[in-house]
Design a protein that fits this description.
single chain, alpha/beta, 7 helices
Length: about 210
């Protein structure tokens, strides 16, 4: 697991952003951050330093995709809790055929990893049209081996994590999500989110990150 702090215009509040599988900061460098932001990504292990949260008066968590599960695990363990927790297109259950990513789809992704199939994954993630075209120009710069290690690690975390300790403030569900079925997300957030909002977006939405981070 990697973390990187990027400076924003306001430096009294921190945003901790847990990205999804297959990501790095490349697609997010163009954002004009409204506050200091700690990005969390590349979940090949869980040895990351979050000590920076103690330098801020308050911090919020924003998590996407399988990063929602990783955020849920981390918040459960950290002594200093966030002011707010927001999720987009993910659930605390991670890989779960009823309440998260379908297990068969996940295993197929792992079994057939290649450069071409990762591009197909990104296409499903973005949906057809301009979102994918724009993302493909700034796609993550990572190796197939790192993707494989990440998938194996996240599967293990999904098997061992028992959600329920944290209640999230908002959970956004993309009705066009082709990675985590909207119905699975609805089931996954039952009794675990104060507010569930449905959006007409795919699994990845550049506009969502723009609205929450700029």
């Amino acid at each position: 697991m990697k973390t990187r702090l990027l400076k924003g215009t306001a430096q009294d509040t921190l945003k901790v952003v847990f990205l999804g599988f297959g990501q790095d900061l490349t697609p997010f460098f163009s954002l004009k951050l409204s506050s200091d932001t700690l990005f969390v990504y590349d979940y090949e292990d869980d040895s990351a330093d979050f000590g920076v949260i103690y330098k801020y008066e308050k911090y919020d968590v924003i998590a996407w995709s399988l990063g929602v599960m990783m955020a849920d695990i981390w918040v459960s363990k950290t002594e200093r809790k966030p002011r707010k927790m927001i999720a987009i297109n993910g659930t605390p259950f991670g890989v779960n055929s009823e309440k998260g990513v379908d297990s068969a789809l996940y295993q197929a992704t792992l079994a057939n990893l290649s450069e071409d199939n990762m591009m197909r994954f990104y296409r499903r993630m973005c949906g057809r049209g301009q979102e994918f075209i724009a993302f493909s120009k700034v796609k993550p710069l990572r190796s197939i081996d790192s993707f494989k290690n990440e998938l194996i690690f996240l599967a293990g975390k999904s098997a061992s994590h028992c959600p329920g300790e944290n209640i999230w403030d908002e959970a956004f569900i993309g009705l066009k999500d082709a990675i985590i079925a909207p119905l699975n997300q609805e089931r996954g957030w039952r009794d675990l989110a104060l507010n569930v909002v449905k959006l007409d977006v795919s699994h990845y939405s550049a506009q969502f990150f723009k609205e929450k981070l700029e």
